[in-house]
From TrEMBL:
<feature type="region of interest" description="Disordered">
    <location>
        <begin position="1"/>
        <end position="24"/>
    </location>
</feature>
<dbReference type="InterPro" id="IPR029044">
    <property type="entry name" value="Nucleotide-diphossugar_trans"/>
</dbReference>
<protein>
    <submittedName>
        <fullName>Uncharacterized protein</fullName>
    </submittedName>
</protein>
Amino acid sequence: MAPIQPETEPNTPKSPRGIQDTTRPLLVYSRKKAPVQVQSSSSLIRPEVSKGNHYHSATSGEMAIYRANSRILQKAGVKLEDPVPQVFNGQEVEVWPRVTWKPIWRLTFSEIKSKLRGSCSISQRSTMALKGRNIFLEDLSLDGALAINSIDGAKVKVGGLIRNKGWSLESIDHKDSGIPEELRTRGFRINKIEQLEKTYSEAGEFNF
């Protein structure tokens, strides 16, 4: 699958010809996958929606976030495995690596590229959560779950092979009233089997 191309709103000012402006906030989406309103209750889920159409559900909305973040990293040079189709609440969705970060980690595409060094790769089953301003990925090969928390004064380099059992997505029945409403609306629960997690609460430079 070819990397998705950034798109901007029609009235967005264009950069001079031949110059790529990497200081503006990055927009990575396709018209087919543009953000849509989602339903907030399991009672509104419509599993009968035909394949290929938007479900407007919490399930598809969450997966769209993972997809967008994964494609941003892919555009920046990170090697990602292709997503796999899974069915939650009768809805077939693409499951990408579950990649999240706080806005403080990056706001623009140039900031993302400045925090990626060497050859980095993330497997499809992986989960990565970055919570800190100065977290750098350097020759990272992730196959599992990774969570980094750091204060602004901590500069953290994360690299090498990180492999563990990770977190799995378990499909649940949205009609089962014994399951909390928020999980039934989501369509799955996350089983945190194994992860590598580190918190840096002091200033300094660290290699992880």
